[in-house]
Amino acid sequence: MRTHMLYQCKKCPAYQPAKKQKFLSFDSADSGGKLVARGWDPDECRRALAKMIVRDELPFSHVEGQGFIEFMKIASPRFDPPSRRTIGRDIRDIYQFEKEKIREFLARNNLRVSLTTDTWTSVQNINYLVLTAHFIDETWVLHKRIINFTVIPNHKGKTIGKLVESCCINWGIERVFSIVVDNASSNQVAIEYMKEKIGNWKQLVLGGSFLHVRCCCHVLNLIVRDGMEELDSSIDAIRNAVKFIRSSPARLEKFRKCASREKVDHKGVLCL
Fold it and tell me: What top-level branch of life does the organism fall under (predicted)?
């Protein structure tokens, strides 16, 4: 009874965590790869499992799979795998914890933040918006954090602006340096909306002259597409030739033999 009260019953006022045997292991490469002593902690195991689900983009049901359960029985018999609902709550807790860390970091260092946003429509015909924050810490290291990924009713400029404003207020971000968007006309409306709001917060730099930054990748993509239109007829001819060869196994085999005879480096299958 004394052992139970002191080392197992957490509700007992005299409870003392038992000093468990620790094992030596190497820390992750991100933490320096140092040799550390670790003890077995079920809560730490659950947090590590939740991070694995997020990093490897696994479904929550992975923890209820028979293969995973059998693996854990052998790898760590003392660990009881949680249900999909429990692992979902654990991931939500990790998200809230990391969110508060970023909010405190931005507030403590009073940093200027640059934002990048984009919207698109999924194959399920659902509109999404993503908002990414870029900032430089006190050691001049550039950081990038996705601070919002959400459904948006439509692609109108004012709707985008209001959602970006709401996200900035939620994260406590007022010192916005620039916002990077593509060349869609709706983004011009969103930028004008955000310029007005940030101006009300008295945080514009040079009157907002450099608030709107056009995405160079999108500009380059438009240039390439315009250039490709000049070559449409040639590209169509090449595609038709490839389709003709691929439509018959005999033609494809004959093409491979010709390529080998002419010593042309090829991967064996023509690609469209």
Answer: Eukaryota
Domains assigned to the chain: 40-109 (no CATH), 110-220 (3.30.420), 232-261 (no CATH)
Closest among 178, 201, 184 to 132, alpha carbons compared:
178
pLDDT at 20 over 60: no
Q: Distance between CA 202 and CA 197 in Å, rounded?
A: 9
- H or E, element range at 147: strand 142-151
Which pTM value belongs to this model? 0.66
Interstrand relation of 176-181 and 113-121 (parallel, antiparallel or unpaired): parallel
Q: Tell me: the pLDDT tens digits for 50-99? A: 999 999 999 999 999 999 999 988 988 888 889 999 999 999 999 999 98
- Side-chain half-sphere CA neighbours of 205 within 13 A: 12
Q: Of all residues in the chain, what percent carry a pLDDT higher than 90? A: 37
Angle subtended at Cα 118 by Cα 208 and Cα 135, rounded to the nearest 5 degrees: 55
Q: Which amino acid is at 142?
A: L
C-alpha distances in Å from residue 246, one per residue of 5, 27, 147, 265, 269: 75, 52, 46, 18, 8
